[in-house]
Amino acid sequence: MKTLWPGILDEVRQRQLAEPALRRLLHDAVLRWDDPARALAWRLAQRLAGSGESVGLLWGLLLEPLQTDSRLLDAAEADLLACRERDPACHALHLPFLFYKGFHALQVHRAAHAHWLAGRRTSATLLQHRCSEALAVDIHPAAQLGSGLLLDHATGFVAGETAIVEDGVSLLHGVTLGGTGKQGGDRHPVLRRGCSLGAGALLLGRIEIGPGARVGAGSVVLTDVPGACTAVGQRARLVTRAPANSPAQSDVVPAWAKGPSRCSGSA
Predict the structure, then answer these.
(1) Which side of the chain, N or C, has fewer Cβ within a 10 Å radius?
(2) Which alpha helices (DSSP H) does the chain contain, by range?
(3) Are 211 and 225 a contacting pair, CB within 8 Å?
(4) Residue 2: helix, strand or coil by DSSP?
(5) Pairing, β 176-178 against β 150-151
(6) What pLDDT, in 10s, does the model give residues 121-164?
(7) pLDDT at residue 265 in the model
(8) Which string of DSSP letters, residue by residue, matches 1-53?
(9) pLDDT tens-place string over residues 5-21
(10) Contact, 192 vs 208, CB < 8 A?
(11) Residue 136 has what pLDDT?
């Protein structure tokens, strides 16, 4: 993000002149920092603070990975450019840096993922917890996310433990990268480079969305989508009555759920 930082500073100075009521906010969040890593960590900590966790504690947990691994700042820069280039409502780089919770959630996740890989799983889960509480975005710390991502609006986005999202992917609010109840192994979707998921799309299981593919808003996807193809629509159907009084206790999708409908009455 060092390449973009001088431009962000210039934008914010102009905003200070145009909107003097925001002078203190803009100074505290951006202009007082000469290091983009420290500025980003501070802004994220401000967004996450609550429920007893201090801004200082969160700032430390966020800053350490940003200072240790330069790839996190590079990814943040790519995400900022994705906002500017692919979100028609984003008119300046300082806007996602300061206010877009999709951008913020992605950066929090990268810090949490670094802690997870280092074996600091309580720290990682704390960041995940605060991100879910404060930003309404729930990404498991073990999920693997690329760079140049656009998480637009972001509210309600969920990604499970073994989800993989490659570079250049665009995701709208309410998207779920979920499992089917399988207890172990790879059980969440893989999104290949440059694909796009519409609002409320529900992807379940270890399926693959190919490079450049598109999934329409509200679609339910249970099978692979080839690259450069578009998938739309709901797949849910009545198949039979529940096999037990507590189907949630079953950890597998039964064979009958994959076959044609055999339901002969209301469920």
Answers:
(1) C
(2) 5-18, 23-26, 36-48, 55-68, 70-86, 94-99, 101-117, 121-135
(3) no
(4) coil
(5) unpaired
(6) 999 999 999 999 999 999 999 999 999 999 999 999 999 999 99
(7) 37
(8) -TTTHHHHHHHHHHHHHH-GGGHHHHIIIIIT-S-HHHHHHHHHHHHH-BTTB
(9) 999 999 999 999 999 99
(10) yes
(11) 98
Q: Nearest Cα to 31, choosing from 92, 98, 96?
A: 98
Close Cβ partners of 221 (under 8 Å, ≥ 6 residues apart): 189, 201, 202, 203, 204, 207, 209, 215, 231, 235
Provide the domain limits for residue 119.
1-136
List CB contacts of 249: < 8 A, sequence separation 6 or more: none
- What is the number of domains present in the chain? 2
Number of helices followed by number of strands (H, E) in the chain: 8, 14
Encode pLDDT of 9-53 as tens digits.
999 999 999 999 999 999 999 999 999 999 999 999 999 997 677
Instruction: Let me know whether 29 and 130 are in one domain.
Output: yes
- Determine whether 6 is exposed, middle or buried from the number of CB atoms within 10 Å of its CB (0-12, 13-18, 19+): exposed
Q: Is 176 helix (H, G, I), strand (E, B) or coil?
A: strand
Q: What is the rounded distance in angstroms from the CA atom of residue 180 to the CA atom of residue 203?
A: 10
Of 1 and 87, the one with more pLDDT:
87
Residue 165's pLDDT band (cuts 50, 70, 90) = very high
Angle between helices 55-68 and 101-117 (to 10 degrees): 70
Of the three residues 136, 170, 186, the one that is the final residue of a domain is 136
Alpha carbon distance, N-terminus to C-terminus of the chain: 54
- In-domain check, residue 151: no
